[in-house]
Design goal:
heterodimer, A: mainly alpha, two-stranded antiparallel sheet, 12 helices, B: alpha/beta, Rossmann fold, 5-stranded parallel sheet
Chain lengths: 297, 370
């Protein structure tokens, strides 16, 4: 492999890795508070992408469509919490998990019924889809924008968690919900806030995913959701920074497998997950995760 | 007691003689999911065929039970089981994707229910099966069409793209390679993709480094559209050639300008449709959908009519074994997609076409006979 192709593959790795990282942040945020693996996260991502698509294709400017998509995803997230998760707050965690899977199926099939399952072309403005040629290396605009967006969102999330009153409430909820309630904090409101944040992150992830790979369908969230989940686990689920690291590692692993062993490219997911298992064997809490019971963001 | 049962039996006999029965045909299609366009277009054609003909010569009416498998192998097998056990269908039409048809075939075979796949081209679908037939040609033929066309038009070096998750793609890749090498072409390498992946930048970069004169893309349109777009973005100029799995309007919609020049072998092009049957179908299709007739719909119509023809040759159209025997014995069937003969393996022997994306539309290039 010549140096040019190698550089190109590294760019590809950054591109895919930052995509996973972006989606994994939202995953890990909800887990950190509720200890709930929100399997509907990938589908809320799909909702975001779809709303942006529908709004944009019916004439709304792209930027406004993005805001609309984020708001609708937040509403979807809050509604799922209110309708499906809140009544189960005191139920065993496994019931919540099953409910999350149910919500996931519900959203997928709802959008299937409403919009059909045929993939649609997602049109994004030129400044997002343009390509930069740099000494023979091709750099799509998204490769520059997505890591920046991911880092910005990461810092905003960390800032909210660590520097604001609401963040403090979120962190304390992650430790002990009943005690927090005794302190006079409206736990349900804070949890709603977490879902709103998580869903907004999912929607942004979904829109960038659709910009990078301009074909959207109601089942688009399944695979990405799984990958982002794996990224979150790899980085240490519950740790926001870990999710970003996990996303990049997963992305690079996939690209490297295809780049160096094209014949084994079909097994790239297998390689990525073998890597995940290896990491978990030596660090059961993931790369950034601390003691399971103590890890809080 | 004996008397009563005799009365019941004779009543049933009279009933069956005087009233037309309802014959059920089960249909399994990917109406949603990643390859939904296959299922939707198949269903579109099926509706035309059903509207044109839904009673048998003896007066029995045909009822279609259409199930969606979301493009999933397990769902396809479950749907087949449901059609046989619960709905008691006489015959089954479906699926499109070879992998899904292969999941259905053992179920149909075990229940001795005739199954016809209108569009699964992998040879293994019918292999060793007595109750599975198909209305389309098989991959060795399709791969050879592509390989020969590519080589004869000056594209003498190729990289093959295989979708490792799809038996269809694996089959076409193998066939392309064999025919291309035989013709004298050079295979520079092979890259693997997985369906439902969306990032092919790594594969595309690998292809660019190998610099082939043509890319043999053997997968389906969702991946084909994204891959050709990503390929053009990194500056690959070589044209793509694929199979019937890419010939969907979504290819053009998703890939946009990048899809220009994408060639593919297919079952049908209305520009090449000259027979009376084909014209009637194409006219009805235009009237109902206001767009060009696609190949999946045409194949579904042929598969459906083959079942009906087979049923009409039986004294009892609900006799699964008899229907299957006639289905497997189909000779000189005048279909929308051409004349179909079923060989001893249950595969259709028929002609194919090569199309190309030109000015945002599918244009007809040539017809290739077996």
């Amino acid at each position: 492999m010549d140096i040019l192709t190698f550089m190109q593959q590294m760019i590809n790795g950054i591109s895919l890795g930052s995509m996973y990282a972006l989606i994994a942040i939202g995953y890990t945020l909800v887990y950190g508070v509720l200890r709930l693996i929100n399997f509907a996260h990938g589908d809320i991502m799909m909702v975001g992408a779809f709303v942006a698509y529908i709004a944009h294709s019916s004439g709304v400017p792209f930027e406004l469509a993005v805001i609309l998509a984020i708001v609708s995803a937040m509403i979807t997230g809050i509604l799922t919490d209110k309708i499906a998760y809140k009544p189960l707050r005191d139920a065993p965690k496994i019931s919540l998990l099953i409910t999350a899977i149910g919500i996931s199926f519900f959203l997928e099939n709802l959008f299937n019924v409403l919009f059909g399952g045929v993939p649609r072309a997602f049109a994004a403005p030129d400044y997002l889809t343009s390509i930069i040629h740099f000494k023979g290396i091709v750099i799509p605009m998204t490769v520059i924008i997505i890591p920046v967006v991911t880092l910005v969102l990461l810092f905003i999330t960390l800032w909210i968690l660590n520097k604001t009153k609401y963040g403090m409430a979120i962190r304390s909820l992650a430790f002990d919900i009943p005690t927090v309630k005794l302190m006079g904090i409206n736990a349900d409101f804070i949890i709603m806030l977490v879902f709103a944040m998580g869903s907004a992150l999912a929607a942004i992830g979904g829109i960038f995913y659709a910009v990078s790979y301009p074909s959207i369908d109601p089942l688009m969230g399944i695979i990405v959701g799984l990958k982002a989940f794996a990224a979150a686990v790899l980085g240490g689920i519950g740790s926001v920074a870990g999710a970003v690291i996990g996303g990049f590692i997963l992305g690079f692993t996939e690209i490297v497998v295809v780049a160096f062993m094209p014949e084994l490219g079909g097994y790239k997911d297998a390689f990525a997950f073998i890597f995940l298992i290896l990491v978990l064997l030596f660090r059961p809490t993931g790369i950034m995760g601390q003691d399971l019971e103590r890890s809080r963001f | 007691m004996k008397k009563i049962s005799t009365i019941v039996a004779s009543a049933a006999l009279i009933a069956s003689m005087s009233y037309a029965k309802e014959i059920k045909i089960g249909v399994v299609l990917p109406l949603t999911g990643p390859i939904a366009a296959f299922g939707q277009t198949s269903n579109g054609g099926l509706k035309i065929a059903y509207a044109q003909r839904h009673t048998l010569k003896n007066g029995d009416t045909v009822k279609l039970i259409v199930l969606d498998d979301r493009g999933d192998k397990v769902e396809a097998a479950t749907a087949t089981r449901r059609l046989i056990d619960k709905d008691h269908v006489t015959a089954i039409l479906g699926e499109v994707a070879s992998s899904n048809s292969m999941a259905m075939a053992p179920v149909a075979e075990k229940a001795k229910t005739p199954m016809i796949t209108h569009a699964s081209t992998n040879p293994r679908v019918t292999k060793g099966k007595k109750f599975v037939t198909r209305a389309c040609f098989i991959d060795p033929f399709q791969g050879a069409i592509q390989a020969n066309y590519a080589y004869d038009h000056g594209y003498k070096t190729a990289v093959i793209v295989t979708d490792a998750k799809q038996d269809y793609s694996v089959g076409v890749s193998k066939a392309f390679k064999k025919a291309y090498l035989k013709r004298g072409g050079k295979i520079l390498g092979r890259v693997i993709i997985n369906s439902q992946d969306k990032d092919f930048n790594a594969q595309v970069s690998t292809i660019k480094a190998k610099n082939p004169s043509i890319v043999a893309f053997t997968g389906y349109y969702p991946e084909g559209a994204l891959m050709v777009k990503q390929a053009r973005a990194v500056g690959i100029q070589a044209p793509f050639i694929g199979g019937d799995g890419v010939g969907f309007p979504e290819l053009i919609k998703i890939a946009g300008k990048a899809s220009e020049g994408f060639m593919y072998s297919d079952h049908f092009n209305e520009a090449a449709a000259t027979s009376k049957v084909a014209k009637a179908y194409v006219d009805a299709f235009h009237k109902k959908y206001h767009k060009p007739a696609d190949s999946m719909g045409a194949l579904a119509a042929d598969g459906y009519n083959m079942i009906l023809d087979a049923m009409e040759k039986c004294s009892n159209p609900a006799d699964k074994v008899c229907v299957n025997k006639n289905l497997r014995g189909t000779k000189n069937f005048q279909g929308v997609t051409g004349v179909i003969n079923i060989n001893k393996n249950g595969d259709a022997v028929k002609s194919g076409v090569v199309n190309v994306v030109k000015n945002g539309k599918f244009a007809y290039l040539t017809t290739v006979n077996p």
